[in-house]
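Newbie here. two chains, one complex. Structure please?
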Amino acid sequence: MNFRKKLKPSLIAVLMLCAGCLSMPETVLVPGAPEDLQSCFVLFPSGPWECVHKIEAVIGEGMSSSLLGITQGDPAERKLHTVLLTPEGFILFEAEQREDTISVLKSVAPFDSPAFARGLMEDVNLLFLPPRGRPSKWGRSADGAVLCQWESPDGYREEITLSTVGRISLRDRHGDLAKEALLMAPFVKGLASQMELRAHQPALYMLRMTLLPGAP
Amino acid sequence: MKKGVWRKIVFLGGVTAAGFVSAMPVHSQNWASLRESFRNIQSVKAEFLQERHLQILKDPLVSEGRFFYLASGSLRWEYLSPLRSVMLQKGDSVRLYHFSEGAWKQDMTQGVEARRMVLAEMSQWLQGRFEESKNFSYSYSQGPPGRILLSPKEGINRFILAIEIVLSDRPGVIDRVEITEPGGSSMRITFRNVEINASLPSRLFDEP
C-alpha cells in the first residue's frame, strides 16, 4: 500500500517529464492551393533592405540588456550583414553571410565565440530570410490560419503561421521547439514593426526588437 | 565582458565629460591656465546629439541624450532616443539601466564591474590629469578653436585611433567630441544647452 502511495506521485512526475520531451503532434492541415503558396513568404521583405532595431535581450530568467541592431539583407542572394551595438554606439559584433558562409568582421568578448556567431546569424536568418525553396507542405489549420512547413536535410522543421501575428517556429529533429518568433504589424517596407524571438535551445533567451522609424 | 570594450565605452563618456571640465578657457588659453580652470567647475549639465557613422549605414545613426556631472565624483550619462539608457556613477559605484516596458531595468552586470575598474582613470581626466592616463597621451592646440587630441596607447588603438575635443568659443563650453575608429567608423558628439555650475540634485546620480 505504502509502495503504491509512493509510486503514484513518482509516476506522475515521470509522466510529466516525458510529456515535456514529447514532440509536438503534426498539425492537421487543409491542403493549400498553389496560389496560397506566396502567403508563406509574406512575413519577409522581398527585395534588398536595411533596418535598425532597438533590442532588449533577456537571458535566462531576468538579466537583460539593451542594444541596437543594424541589419542589411538581400533575399535573392541570401546575403545578410548585421551589426550589434551598445546604446553608446560601440560595435560588439559584426558579421556577413553569403549563402551558408558566415564571416565575422568584428567581435568582442563575450560575443566572440563561434557558437555566438552561429546562434546570432541563425536568429537573423529566422527573422529576415524565408526558408530555402518551396515549403514541404502548406495549407490552413482548423482555425483558418495559414501554415507553411519546411523540412531541412538535417531534420529541422521551420513552420510559419499567419494569423493576427506572424509566427515562425523552428523545431529540432525530435520535434522540440528550438526557437520561436512573433512578428507583429504594422509592416514597414516588408519589415515587422515589433518582433519577439524566444530561444529554448541550446540557450534560453528572449529578444524583443522594435523597428526604428526612418532609420537608416 | 572584455575589459577593452567597457574601457572604450567609459573612455568616451569620460572624455566627453572631461572635455567640459577642460573647456573653461576663453580664446587661446594655454595649457597651464586651462588646467587651472578645472578648479572652477563644480557641475556641468548639457544635452548632446550623437552621430554614429558606420560603414554599413548610408546615414549616421543619431542618438540624443543629456549628461550631468559633479566635480565631487558623480556622473549621469543618459540616452533619451532611440533607446533610453543611463549610466550612473557616484564615487566608486557604477550602475547601468535601460528603460523597457514602462520601467527602468538594471542592465547586465558583467560590464559594470569592468566600468568600475576604469573609473579611477576617468576621474583623473575629470580632474584634468590627462598626463596620468595609462591609455592615452594628450596634446593641446590653443586654436582658436582650442583642441585637445587624445592618442591611444598600445591596446586601446585596436578600438580608437584618435579622440579630439573641440572647444567652443564660449568660455566653459565645448563644441564637440570626435572619435575616429579603425575601419572608417567614427562618432561625433555635439553639445548644446550647456550649463556650468548649475545646482544638480543628488537624486540625478542615485536613481535612473
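Moderator note: The CA atoms of residues 59 and 205 of chain A lie 4 Å apart. Residues 2-21 of chain A form the longest helix (20 residues). Thread marked as resolved.
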